[in-house]
Write a structure and sequence with these properties.
The structure holds two protein chains of two kinds.
Chain A (H helix, E strand, L loop, with lengths): L8 E2 L33 H5 L32 E4 L5 E6 L5 E9 L12 H8 L9 H10 L3 E6 L3 E9 L3 H13 L5 H18 L3 H14 L13 H6 L2 H11 L5 E7 L3 H11 L25 E6 L5 E9 L8 H11 L6 H9 L3 E8 L7 E9 L3 H14 L6 H14 L7 H13 L6 H11 L2 H11 L6 E6 L1 H11 L4 E4 L7
Chain B lengths: L39 E4 L5 E6 L5 E8 L13 H8 L11 H8 L3 E6 L4 E8 L3 H13 L7 H20 L6 H9 L14 H6 L2 H11 L5 E7 L3 H12 L21 E8 L5 E8 L7 H12 L5 H9 L3 E11 L2 E10 L5 H17 L4 H18 L9 H12 L5 H9 L3 H11 L5 E8 L2
Parallel strand pairs in B: 2-6, 7-11
Antiparallel strand pairs in B: 1-2, 3-5, 3-6, 4-5, 8-10, 8-11, 9-10
Helix pairs in contact in B: 1-4, 3-8, 9-15, 10-11, 11-15, 12-14
Classes of the chains: A alpha+beta, B alpha+beta.
Chain lengths: ~525, ~450
């Protein structure tokens, strides 16, 4: 495509969302200590004399202070319409008549949290197999049919749910829905395609071991949750389980969990409720009502880490050290949700957050530092992360802990206000595209959020106080109990790390995290 | 298939993209209507070209500036400088102290970013609509008044950040050196595309304050830039604000067009490099037309027939049938001074790139022997059309409507080039695709780069 630049280099996403190895973005949720600004503030004016351009004085606008900001626009979130298909499947719709596109997502609750021991990776593989042949079509025929309509169909499974997502020009809604229904209701699960997909995933695991940024995505959750708890292994699973999965097991998993009573369909875009319901009733008529199914049993509460531990994964010659520091965080259902969004914005959830200001802007150790509360049905991890230059690894670790400890002391009022405004005022912008809107609906469905979740969110953010932040930090950010996982060049970085005396250090080979 | 191999950020600006006229709320959008993005444009007396577009879907305003300069303008010994300069642009200006640019925007609920390519540098600021004037003030201050408060420490700080960006994107990235090699193999020394945008560590170290001053004065003037303001805005009021904040910035010297040494290949250039990787990867590259010139869109169609989707010719054969490749992607990567058609494939464990290359050659030969069938053509066109719509769903950010308007203006002089761009694809016949493949993918004039494990 024109302009598909091979070499565009950006300033860096302002919030650096670490990626889980399965490609799923972590839900994103900083103090400026002006301790050591190592400045050589030679004004360039003095340096370069008359060289620089001077602006015309007198008649310009007043630049002595930033222009005042008008009153915030009223929060107008789109209306959510709800009904039920004739087979009992709930249907949620947001109309958005901007571009002639429709987004239709079929959600099956449970996801990878349903994987049984020895088969971690099953839900993900089942989801990936859905469009490898369905109804009357082979995998390639199906791809051809979808693309011919200008549609985009994808399948995925995260820890909390599986989803089949369709984006289609609205003029092709009916034929695209027929394909979607084949994928959800009539997957063929051909043995040959399963075999191919398994090999593809095994090769991807081989590739991941080359890449420090990928390795840490396997190592960190394993250190925090261990090999048994589901969150300790990526949704996509590891080699022994992937190799063991049989076509019969895939079918059995599908049959048990892909039932109408476990499903919700969300539709957004250039459609009306009446049109969406009629089209989906027609397409999904073949899905028998299974009766409502109770909420999927949540995973047990993961045990919290008790003491700090350093895990060093050797990647000889690495130009950067990948660092993740954290422990078991909170579930999405936390009553402190709004407070944690603000807290994390201060700590590492925005460009001006303390972690990014310290490690990137003030010290230049990294291209970006961030922190995340990855909220799932059960408690996902809290983590602070950055890729830092090898020869500054120890210095960077020290600054991480400066900020992780600093966040537990009172946050100055101005910083609280900035973070609250950032979260609250930016919120309406999250409801722009059909995909954005469908994503918001998915979140409500999967986490069983109250009807007024989004409407009340901004108000809840506005009420957060410095005292709330301090209380939340004391409870949810406890650096003395966190695991510190580092993937880097051991020979170059171990002595410096040891000198920091952060805690007992364990060296683990890469392969250990891929077993 | 997505082209994630190639893009560090989402394709910026010039991606073929289009959509319908914006309709009143509740009326269904009409996919048969001409694709049009209504806009107002004018040029300030200092030469700044301004494009305004209203879309009230969400209460957000996008301020989008393109400076018509990229890494292609860098001096010898200063590779990576245009991008380093981009970073410095966020560090404050005469009336905005260091840190305030980001701080004020965040306190208003806004976001910002920038990116640099060989041809241009763009800056995006997305704010709640009530903070539009703040965004214009900040953008104008760094356009007009960057230098008075520039310091060595600002430059040094961003130099460290950029070096870490290079470590992250290139040095610590499997196969990261491949694009550095490709540029050097494809283009003669001194050609603006022969060195990577990120530059070399040595050159980044060498960049001085004097370089910043010279670069700013030569290229960061209003007459070498274009500004788009889009979203929930009032057109007349916004025009007034733009005149207020940008009108007093002095015009700079004229910028002469780049006249590159010609780039062509007269033979097959082969190279094998080693990296810390376990699966070998093959890159094949050809010179192709520049963006929006004849042949550019046809080469997009060639890439779609070869690797667009699972049922595309190369993906089907290499990944599904023979199962000797882990992935395969092709793309027409077109830029202002010329394009590059690239095919990239990674071998499955135990498989060789030679075998993969033989299949690629075979499929390219088939494209030269016969035109694609009608279904392949329609499939590719429908995918491209739908992507136009998807890109039209966002006002701000990289690749949103504001960025697209600016990109079209930069490339064609016409901000609302959406319908014309789509028409380029609709006009292509199957034999056009065949002849483009014949003309631009010669077997005896190309680059073949292989990355193998072993470093």
């Amino acid at each position: 495509m024109a302009g598909m630049g091979i070499a565009e280099v950006g300033r860096g996403a302002r919030v650096l969302a670490p990626r889980a190895p399965d490609g799923r973005g972590l839900a994103i949720v900083g103090k400026r200590k002006s301790r050591c600004h190592l400045v050589r503030r030679v004004a360039v004016a003095a340096l370069l004399g008359a060289l620089f351009v001077s602006a015309p004085a007198a008649q310009g606008p007043d630049r002595s202070k930033p222009p005042a900001i008008g009153p915030a626009p009223a929060l107008r979130l789109p209306a959510i319409q709800k009904t039920t298909l004739s087979n009992g499947v709930p249907l949620w719709v947001i109309e958005q008549h901007r571009v002639p596109l429709a987004q239709v997502n079929v959600i099956l609750r449970g996801g990878s949290s349903l994987d049984r021991s020895g088969r971690y990776g099953m839900a993900s593989l089942v989801a990936a197999m859905l469009d490898e042949g369905a109804g009357p079509r082979s995998a390639l025929e199906l791809a051809d049919a979808v693309e011919f309509l200008g549609a985009d169909l994808s399948t995925s499974s995260s820890f909390d749910y599986s989803a089949v997502r369709l984006s289609t020009p609205v003029k092709n809604l009916a034929p695209a829905l027929a394909l979607l229904a084949d994928v959800v209701l009539r997957p063929a699960f051909p043995a040959s395609e399963l075999d191919r997909l398994k090999k593809e995933r095994l090769a991807a695991l081989v590739q991941a071991q080359d890449n420090p940024a990928a390795i840490i995505g396997y190592a960190f959750p394993r250190v925090v949750y261990g090999p048994t708890y589901r969150y300790g292994t990526p949704a996509t699973g590891l080699a022994p389980a992937i190799e063991a999965i049989t076509p019969d097991e895939v079918r059995a998993f599908y049959k048990e969990h892909f039932v109408s009573g476990n499903a919700t369909i969300v539709v957004t875009g250039d459609v009306t409720m009446a049109l969406a319901k009629a089209a989906l009733d027609a397409a999904f008529a073949g899905w028998p009502s299974s009766g409502p199914r109770g909420a999927t049993a949540a995973l047990p509460v993961a045990p919290q880490l008790t003491k700090r531990e350093i895990v060093l994964v050797d990647k000889p010659g690495a130009a950067q050290s990948q660092i993740r520091i954290g422990f078991v965080g909170v579930p999405r259902s936390t009553p402190d949700y709004a407070t944690l969004q603000v807290l994390n914005t201060v700590l590492g959830g925005s460009f001006t957050s303390r972690l990014n200001q310290n490690l990137r802007e003030r010290n230049g150790y990294t291209y970006g530092a961030a922190s995340v509360f990855d909220m799932r049905t059960s408690a996902g991890p809290f983590l602070a992360t950055a890729g830092v230059q090898t020869d500054k690894t120890a210095e960077a670790l020290r600054e991480f802990f400066v900020e992780l400890e600093g966040i537990t002391t009172p946050v100055p009022a101005e910083e609280v206000e900035k973070a609250k405004n950032y979260v609250a005022l930016g919120f309406p912008g999250e409801f722009e595209t059909t995909r954005n809107l469908a994503q918001k609906l998915e979140e409500m469905v999967v986490f069983n959020l109250p009807e007024d979740t989004y409407q009340s969110f901004v108000g809840a953010v506005t009420k957060v106080t410095a005292a709330d932040l301090q209380k939340a930090a004391a409870r949810y950010v406890q650096p003395e109990r966190m695991a510190v996982v580092i993937v880097g060049d051991r020979k170059a970085i171990e002595p410096g790390i040891t000198k920091l005396n952060l805690g007992p250090l364990r060296v683990v080979p890469i392969e250990e995290f891929f077993k | 298939m997505t082209l994630r191999l190639f893009c560090t950020l989402a394709a910026v600006g010039l991606v073929a993209a289009s959509g319908p006229a914006i309709r009143a709320q509740q009326a269904p959008a009409d996919s048969s209507a001409p694709l049009a993005v209504p806009y107002t444009e004018f040029t300030l007396s200092n030469g700044l070209h301004v494009i305004l577009h209203q879309d009230k879907t969400v209460p957000v305003a996008a301020v989008n500036v393109w400076y018509h300069v990229g890494s292609g303008r860098e001096k010898p010994g200063r590779t990576g400088f245009a991008h380093l300069f981009e970073h410095v642009m966020f560090e404050g200006s005469e009336h905005v102290k260091e840190g305030e640019f980001d701080g004020w925007l965040e306190a208003a609920g806004g976001n910002n970013n920038g990116s640099t390519s060989e041809d241009r540098t763009n800056y995006i600021t997305d704010v709640p609509a009530n903070a539009l004037e703040l965004a214009l003030f900040l953008e104008s201050d760094r356009m007009g008044y960057l230098l008075p408060t520039l310091t060595q420490s600002k430059l040094d700080g961003q130099r460290d950040v950029v070096k870490n960006e290079k470590r992250q994107r290139v040095d610590n990235q499997p196969y990261g050196q491949a694009f550095v090699e490709l540029g050097a193999m494809m283009y003669p020394q001194g050609h603006p595309y022969s060195w990577p945008v990120i530059g070399s560590m040595e050159d980044l170290s060498a960049a001085s304050l004097t370089d910043v001053v010279e670069f700013f004065k030569a290229y960061y003037a209003p007459n070498n830039a274009s500004l788009v303001v889009a979203g929930d805005i009032d057109i007349e009021a916004t025009r007034g604000l733009v005149e207020k904040w940008f009108g007093g910035i002095p015009r700079g010297p004229d910028v002469t067009p780049m006249v590159p040494v010609p780039a062509s290949l007269s033979e097959v250039k082969r190279k094998t490099i080693t990296d810390k990787v376990q699966l070998p990867r093959l890159y094949m590259a050809w010179h192709t037309p520049a963006f929006y010139t004849p042949g550019d869109a046809a080469m997009d169609m060639v890439s779609s027939v070869l690797t667009g989707g699972k049922n595309s010719r190369l993906y089907r054969r290499l990944v599904y049938e023979m199962q000797i490749a882990q992935d395969v992607n092709a793309a027409q990567m077109s830029r202002a001074l010329g394009g590059m058609f690239l095919v990239v494939a990674t071998a499955r464990p135990g498989q060789s790139v030679e075998k993969i290359q033989a299949v690629i050659d075979e499929e390219i030969e088939k494209m030269k022997q016969a035109p694609p069938d009608a279904r392949e053509m329609t499939r590719a066109l429908n995918q491209i059309e739908a992507q136009f719509y998807r890109n039209m769903e966002r006002t701000g950010s990289f690749g949103g409507k504001a960025d697209l308007l600016n990109g079209y203006y930069f490339a064609t002089g016409m901000p609302d080039y959406f319908e014309e761009d789509l028409a380029r694809y609709r006009a292509i016949s199957p034999t056009d695709v065949q002849s483009a493949a014949s003309r631009y993918l010669p077997k005896d004039r190309r680059v073949e780069l292989t990355v193998v494990g072993g470093k």
